[in-house]
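for the recovery benchmark. C-alpha coordinates below, seq after
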Protein backbone atom coordinates (compact mmCIF):
# COMPACT_ATOMS: atom_id res chain seq x y z
CA UNK A 1 0.00 0.00 0.00
CA UNK A 2 1.15 3.58 -0.63
CA UNK A 3 -0.19 5.18 2.50
CA UNK A 4 -2.52 4.46 5.34
CA UNK A 5 -4.46 6.64 7.72
CA UNK A 6 -5.13 5.89 11.35
CA UNK A 7 -7.24 8.08 13.58
CA UNK A 8 -6.86 7.94 17.35
CA UNK A 9 -10.02 6.64 18.98
CA UNK A 10 -11.46 5.26 15.73
CA UNK A 11 -11.55 1.53 14.91
CA UNK A 12 -11.31 2.28 11.16
CA UNK A 13 -8.05 2.09 9.19
CA UNK A 14 -7.90 3.37 5.62
CA UNK A 15 -5.36 2.07 3.11
CA UNK A 16 -4.89 3.20 -0.46
CA UNK A 17 -3.42 0.78 -2.96
CA UNK A 18 -2.97 3.09 -5.93
CA UNK A 19 -2.80 6.80 -6.59
CA UNK A 20 -4.75 8.54 -9.27
CA UNK A 21 -2.63 9.39 -12.31
CA UNK A 22 -0.99 12.81 -12.34
CA UNK A 23 -2.48 15.06 -14.98
CA UNK A 24 -0.04 16.81 -17.26
CA UNK A 25 -0.90 19.77 -19.40
CA UNK A 26 0.75 20.49 -22.70
CA UNK A 27 -0.96 23.82 -23.21
CA UNK A 28 -1.73 26.57 -20.79
CA UNK A 29 -4.27 29.31 -21.08
CA UNK A 30 -2.89 32.54 -22.48
CA UNK A 31 -1.95 35.14 -19.93
CA UNK A 32 -4.81 37.62 -19.62
CA UNK A 33 -4.07 41.17 -20.63
CA UNK A 34 -5.35 43.53 -18.00
CA UNK A 35 -5.40 47.15 -19.09
CA UNK A 36 -3.61 49.55 -16.79
CA UNK A 37 -5.96 51.86 -14.99
CA UNK A 38 -4.79 55.43 -14.74
CA UNK A 39 -4.80 56.73 -11.21
CA UNK A 40 -5.41 60.43 -10.91
CA UNK A 41 -5.04 60.57 -7.16
CA UNK A 42 -5.16 64.35 -7.15
CA UNK A 43 -8.65 64.33 -8.68
CA UNK A 44 -10.01 61.23 -6.93
CA UNK A 45 -11.29 62.32 -3.50
CA UNK A 46 -10.84 58.94 -1.85
CA UNK A 47 -7.25 58.47 -3.06
CA UNK A 48 -6.37 62.06 -2.20
CA UNK A 49 -7.81 61.59 1.28
CA UNK A 50 -5.75 58.40 1.78
CA UNK A 51 -2.64 60.20 0.54
CA UNK A 52 -3.14 63.15 2.89
CA UNK A 53 -3.85 60.86 5.86
CA UNK A 54 -0.73 58.80 5.17
CA UNK A 55 1.36 61.95 4.69
CA UNK A 56 0.19 63.30 8.05
CA UNK A 57 0.99 59.96 9.72
CA UNK A 58 4.52 59.97 8.30
CA UNK A 59 5.13 63.61 9.24
CA UNK A 60 4.02 62.89 12.82
CA UNK A 61 6.23 59.79 12.91
CA UNK A 62 9.28 61.73 11.66
CA UNK A 63 8.67 64.57 14.12
CA UNK A 64 8.36 62.07 16.95
CA UNK A 65 11.62 60.39 15.95
CA UNK A 66 13.48 63.69 15.85
CA UNK A 67 11.95 64.69 19.21
CA UNK A 68 13.08 61.40 20.78
CA UNK A 69 16.64 61.73 19.40
CA UNK A 70 18.13 65.08 20.45
CA UNK A 71 21.44 64.29 18.74
CA UNK A 72 19.73 64.33 15.34
CA UNK A 73 18.06 67.61 16.24
CA UNK A 74 21.49 69.06 17.12
CA UNK A 75 23.02 67.89 13.82
CA UNK A 76 20.14 69.37 11.82
CA UNK A 77 20.41 72.60 13.78
CA UNK A 78 24.14 72.81 13.01
CA UNK A 79 23.46 72.15 9.33
CA UNK A 80 20.78 74.83 9.08
CA UNK A 81 22.97 77.33 10.90
CA UNK A 82 25.85 76.56 8.51
CA UNK A 83 23.60 77.00 5.48
CA UNK A 84 22.29 80.33 6.75
CA UNK A 85 25.76 81.56 7.69
CA UNK A 86 27.76 80.39 4.66
CA UNK A 87 24.96 80.69 2.07
CA UNK A 88 26.32 78.13 -0.41
CA UNK A 89 25.38 78.43 -4.08
CA UNK A 90 24.60 74.70 -4.32
CA UNK A 91 22.90 73.51 -1.14
CA UNK A 92 22.77 69.87 -2.26
CA UNK A 93 26.55 69.65 -2.72
CA UNK A 94 27.01 71.47 0.57
CA UNK A 95 24.69 68.99 2.32
CA UNK A 96 26.57 66.07 0.76
CA UNK A 97 29.85 67.39 2.10
CA UNK A 98 28.37 68.32 5.47
CA UNK A 99 26.77 64.93 6.15
CA UNK A 100 29.60 62.81 4.64
CA UNK A 101 31.22 62.11 8.03
CA UNK A 102 27.91 60.69 9.32
CA UNK A 103 27.53 58.22 6.43
CA UNK A 104 28.96 54.81 7.42
CA UNK A 105 29.99 54.09 3.81
CA UNK A 106 31.99 57.28 3.42
CA UNK A 107 33.06 57.84 7.01
CA UNK A 108 36.76 57.22 6.41
CA UNK A 109 39.32 59.82 7.40
CA UNK A 110 40.03 61.16 3.89
CA UNK A 111 36.41 62.16 3.34
CA UNK A 112 36.29 63.81 6.75
CA UNK A 113 39.44 65.78 6.02
CA UNK A 114 38.11 66.83 2.60
CA UNK A 115 34.74 67.85 4.04
CA UNK A 116 36.28 69.88 6.85
CA UNK A 117 38.65 71.56 4.39
CA UNK A 118 35.81 72.50 2.03
CA UNK A 119 33.37 73.76 4.67
CA UNK A 120 34.67 77.03 6.06
CA UNK A 121 34.01 77.58 9.72
CA UNK A 122 32.61 81.05 10.28
CA UNK A 123 34.62 83.30 12.55
CA UNK A 124 33.14 85.90 14.79
CA UNK A 125 33.96 89.57 14.31
CA UNK A 126 33.17 90.30 17.94
CA UNK A 127 36.25 90.73 20.13
CA UNK A 128 35.78 90.65 23.86
CA UNK A 129 38.34 92.67 25.79
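predicted aa per position
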Amino acid sequence: HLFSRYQVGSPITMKTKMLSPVKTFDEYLPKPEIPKKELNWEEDLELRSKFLDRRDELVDEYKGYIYQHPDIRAILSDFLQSVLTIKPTNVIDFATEFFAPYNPRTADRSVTREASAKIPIPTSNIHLE
